[in-house]
């Protein structure tokens, strides 16, 4: 696994061709001011979650995404408008394409959160997918791998002892899901035949037991890893 160094993020980030920025945020310390950036529709969506804590995490994640993309686009966070693809992948749309000329309409992003860990990948002119996963209780890793990832991966995991099996399962899973998200299909479209070549994939190192991966269209590319802070970056 490549070594990942998470540096404090710049307050005014910018991108050039061939660069992907990945931001890591702690949702447990989120809320204001990011939560104040949500639209009425986003607040309503967060309130519909059965578990209150899940709605709070979703709202904090969306607020951070708004604040972050606004910095790249040199736009007001409240001016950003989002649309979703067929399988729910978010993108900037409509009035979001404003701010820094030639930048906002080129931005591509993807996000993933598990527990209180949020990752947001941002780049220009190429699709991107990111996934992070934390272990879940009472999971039959071999059975899931056989059903989703194939017999070969299931047999590899079967030969391992716990907790190595759990760790290797998470590594395989985040790579698989990051690719799906890069293609814009997600788990719900896993049976869809993707168009174009397979994306470039790299793993992202987080504090155990989390696993994470990034998939980028037309890779390889330079990956910069930043730690989010509402105050400065």
In brief:
This protein is an alpha+beta fold and 233 residues long. The chain has helices at 40-47, 52-73, 141-149, 151-158, 164-183, and strands at 7-8, 19-26, 82-84, 90-92, 107-114, 117-124, 128-133, 200-204, 211-216, 222-227. It has a single domain, classed as Alpha-Beta Complex (Ribosomal Protein L22, Chain A).
Question: How is this structure best described in words?
Answer:
By secondary structure, the chain is of the alpha+beta class. It has a single domain, classed as Ribosomal Protein L22, Chain A (Alpha-Beta Complex), CATH 3.90.470.20. Helices cover about 30% and strands about 25% of the residues. The chain has helices at about 40-45, 50-75, 140-150, 150-160, 165-185; strands at about 5-10, 20-25, 80-85, 90, 105-115, 115-125, 130-135, 200-205, 210-215, 220-225. The protein has a 5-stranded mixed beta sheet, covered by helices on one side. A 3-stranded antiparallel beta sheet has the order 7-9-8, covered by helices on one side. A hairpin with a 5-residue loop joins β3 (about 80-85) and β4. The longest helix is centred in the N-terminal third of the chain and has 22 residues, at about 50-75. The chain is globular and about 50 Å long. The model is unreliable at about 95-100 (pLDDT under 50).
State the separation between the terminal residues, measured CA to CA: 26 Å
Question: Helical stretch count?
Answer: 5
| Integer-rounded radius of gyration | 18 Å
| Number of E strands | 10
Structural class: alpha+beta
From the spread of the alpha carbons, the general shape counts as: globular
Within CATH, the superfamily carries the name: 4'-phosphopantetheinyl transferase domain
Largest sheet: 5 strands, mixed
């Amino acid at each position: 696994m490549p070594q990942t160094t998470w540096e404090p993020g710049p307050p005014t980030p910018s991108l050039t061709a061939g660069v992907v920025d990945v931001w890591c945020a702690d949702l447990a310390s989120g809320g204001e001011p990011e939560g104040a950036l949500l639209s009425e529709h986003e607040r309503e969506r967060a309130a519909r979650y059965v578990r209150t804590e899940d709605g709070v995490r979703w709202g904090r994640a969306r607020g951070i995404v708004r604040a972050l993309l606004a910095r790249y686009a040199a736009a007001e966070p409240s001016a950003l408008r989002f649309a979703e693809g067929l399988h729910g992948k978010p993108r900037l749309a409509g009035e979001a394409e404003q701010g820094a000329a030639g930048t906002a309409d080129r931005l591509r992003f993807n996000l993933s959160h598990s527990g209180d860990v949020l990752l947001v990948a941002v780049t220009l002119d190429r699709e991107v997918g990111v996934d992070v996963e934390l272990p879940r209780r009472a999971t039959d890793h071999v059975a899931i791998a056989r059903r989703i990832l194939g017999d070969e991966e299931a047999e590899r995991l079967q030969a391992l002892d716990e907790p190595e099996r759990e760790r290797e399962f998470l590594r395989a899973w985040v790579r698989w899901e990051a690719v799906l998200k890069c293609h814009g299909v997600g788990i719900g479209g896993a049976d869809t035949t993707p168009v174009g070549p397979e994306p470039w994939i790299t793993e992202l190192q987080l504090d155990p037991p989390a696993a994470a991966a990034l998939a980028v269209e037309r890779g390889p590319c330079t990956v910069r890893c930043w730690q989010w802070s509402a105050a400065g970056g």
